[in-house]
Amino acid sequence: MRQLRFLSKGDGQSKHKKQQNLYDLIGSKRLLIVSNRLPVVIDHEDDEWTIRPGTGGLITALAPIMKENRGIWIGWPGNVQGAPYKKLLDIFNNEYSFNIKPVLLSEDESNKYYYGFSNETIWPLFHDLLSFCKFDKDNWETYKNVNRKFAEAIAGTIEPDNFIWIHDYHLTLVGHYLKEINIKHDLAYFLHIPFPSFDLFRRLPWRNELINGMMSYDLLGFQTLRDRRNFIHCVKSLNPAVKIVVKRRYSIVFDGDRTVKVGNYPISIDFDEFNNLAKTKEVADEAWFFHEKFNAKRLILGIDRLDYTKGIPKRFLAFERALEKYPELQGQLTLFQLLIPSRTPVPEYKQLKEHLDTMVGRINGRFSSPGWVPIHYMFRTFDRIKLLGVYKACEMALITPLRDGMNLVAKEYCASSIDNNGVLILSEFAGAADQLKDGAIIVNPYDLEQTADAIYRAFKMEPQERKNRMSKLRGKIKREDVHLWVRWFIESFRDRRLQPRGEDTVIIGEEQELLDVNLNAPGQQVIEDS
User: What is the CATH number of the domain that holds 202?
Assistant: First the structure.
């Protein structure tokens, strides 16, 4: 008989002043959070089953609030063979004082819904990588069925006072199925990945069904203004009859008797958590050990999940070009690339891993010298202390995704740079670039020369400029942390001033160029926002 055990995160339940303000904001509402995965990790070793809280900004921000008002979190616990889900989840519920409700999926459902449509269709399409897309009707039908299953789980759990907040690209249609079974609650949805332009989105054979499903929510949240703009353009292109009001913080779509509020709310991290942990002796010891281990005078960091959207091959090529173009970097600068295992059953990810292995071997074979290797490369996960030690040890970070909804690694690196000595090189195609452009060195990851020059510029940067840039970045992330993100979203949901101003489509003057609207089209009127 396997033993059952709960593994606590220790300080995961502590209150935060900003979170206390959120309790007041939510009032009598009880949070009902719905995501693809539950905020737990179930594992077993020998004869013992364990359950522990998951990690990530969303869990950090919401778990204390969920505990305070005894909220409910619905999601898939993963397919762990033989796991006693009910007993494990009961242990978690009792320990954490909020309820988690599992949506169990068969292996066929998880393969076609998660690995299939979610990650072989929506993921590449929404990241502007059409060549990776697979449009499989069977996967689409399974995706719809699983979204319906999530909706039924919500319907079987829902209470009149619930604040329903659904998350991410796996569950775009849940709102549609909730409305179909006549659930009257207002529904909020947040997309954590980018939303594509209409020219890309129109390639999806089921584009109308997906857009109509998203239009079933009462509030739609996106990471950036560009994502919000792309969604509005897709809605307008597929249904020209809709009326749209555009404001600085949000847009309102009027589609018959449906009124949908669409906003952009950039997600963030718990700055104080990273900043305070980075000051501990444990992290300082890890940073010292890490730097000494690699025998490098300067370290530049790359850290990503194994994913083709992260631009890792182009990063390696840019680093190789920097070593060619600026020989003084040889023997002086080492790239440490941490690659976190992800979606390994997907063939494209296995091929990417093999390709990266080959690239590292070639570049190291070309440039290595006694006592120095240009790229150190690990395929594994790090715990939080070791990860922050790496952040502190690396004087530079090279974060160059081809497309990213936000990229929280960039923010974590800055929050951990307590001495203000780090330099962030960031892709212009990461959502975080909108917020961090004033302090980071922004690059186009497709431009190898520009990225190589940025590496050299960061290497040669004077201490005062490094300090000024990182101070700006840390200040921005501290002000706009994950707790403010939750507040922005909930306040926007509560603000129900959604009445149209007249019968015409209304566009704000200052955003005309950004929104690329045909102002000469019939029935459109341009006014300034008050």
Answer: 3.40.50.2000
Residue 165 to residue 252: CA distance in whole angstroms: 19
404 assigned to active site: yes
For the chain, give the longest Cα–Cα distance: 74
The whole-number average pLDDT for the span 405-430 is 97
* Integer Cα distance of 160 and 405 in angstroms: 33
CB atoms within 10 A of CB 243: 19
Q: Does the residue 148 lie in any domain?
A: no
Catalytic residue among 44, 127, 167, 192: 192
Q: What is the pLDDT of residues 453-508, one digit of tens each?
A: 999 999 999 999 999 999 999 999 999 998 899 889 988 887 755 544 444 444 44
The answer to whether 325 touches 377, Cβ cutoff 8 Å, is: no
Q: Is residue 49 part of a domain?
A: yes
Q: How far apart are the first and last CA of the chain?
A: 67
Check residue 522 and give its pLDDT. Answer: 36
Query: Buried b vs exposed e over 363-373: b needs ≥16 C-beta within 10 Å?
Result: beeebeeeebb
**Under 8 Å CB-to-CB from 54, ≥6 apart: which residues?**
37, 38, 39, 40, 41
Residue type at 178?
L
CA 478 – CA 414 distance, rounded (Å): 10
Say if residue 200 is in the same domain as residue 318. no
**What is the domain count for the chain?**
2
Q: From the candidates 404, 453, 481, 483, give the one annotated as an active-site residue.
A: 404
Distance CA 392, CA 413 (A): 8
User: Residue type at 228?
Assistant: R
The string of DSSP codes covering 75-123 is: EE----TT--HHHHHHHHHHHHSSEEEE----HHHIIIIIIIIIIIIIH
Decide: 395 and 300 in contact? Cβ < 8 Å. yes
If pLDDT is split at 50, 70 and 90, which confidence band does 7 have? low
